[in-house]
Fold this sequence. Notes:
By secondary structure, this protein is an all-alpha fold. The protein has twelve helices and no strands. The longest helix is centred in the C-terminal third of the chain and has 70 residues.
Amino acid sequence: MPRQPSPISDDASAELRELASGMRDLKDAAGLTFATLNERVHYSTASLSGAVSGKKLPTWEVTWAFIHGCDPMADEQVWQERWRAAEEGELRRAEAEATAPDTAARRPGGVPRQRRSTVAELVREEVERRQQTTAWSPSEAMTVSTALALCTTAYDFRELLRDLMETQGLGNTEIIANARAKGIVLSRGEIFSVLNSGEIPDTAPLHGFLLGCNVGLVRINEWHRTATRIKISQARRSETGSESERRGVRVVWKEFWARLGVEGSLSLISTILFLVLQIIPFIQFLL
Length: 287
């Protein structure tokens, strides 16, 4: 019996739920399993299953491959409009979550979840503390520079981008219009990716987003330098981890031979030679 997909995520926007439900109906009407659909469209079963889970909006390429694989006569324009509506719904949901009170985020059981302070918040707290004790008054540029200098993770960088958008009082429409006025085409999907991706944003959409937020070219270079620094740091940590794994294998191999000793090594080699001699006649017989 084909494995039934899990229920559509309750956290999804109404538009994404409608899209996922419609795609499931197509698959059921065609009588296909995810494995059969995988053979038709050459996307992994995990990607196809995830496309109708409602946990996140699938790319249009995966969405259309799923739909066309279920129904070759499907109207691409109609489904693309439904996909764009789901994209809009997810953007609105993400914006609502970003502005929701922290007390709304709770662990299972109703226990409030402690939210980590962002770099932007820490900088603001330090500015307020110093203003209360001295006559020191930092410029906005100094505050931004300090916040960027303290950024060490993609999470911190993303929170600073959200703080920038909130400080400027801009919505997606205004950011897109501002970027277009400066010769950059920026989509809502790219804004969503910049603000919600778990990784440092790609250079092009990040540049367009910053221009859309009216950041000057000098400050934009500062943002790009910070993004590059974090990417390099992440790459180095990854390389260090790989080297540690390789070093661990070498250490284990050396310890193995050291514990085996001379007599154990000779015994092991003799056993291997004996097995080889036993296998050779069998191989000759097969040939």
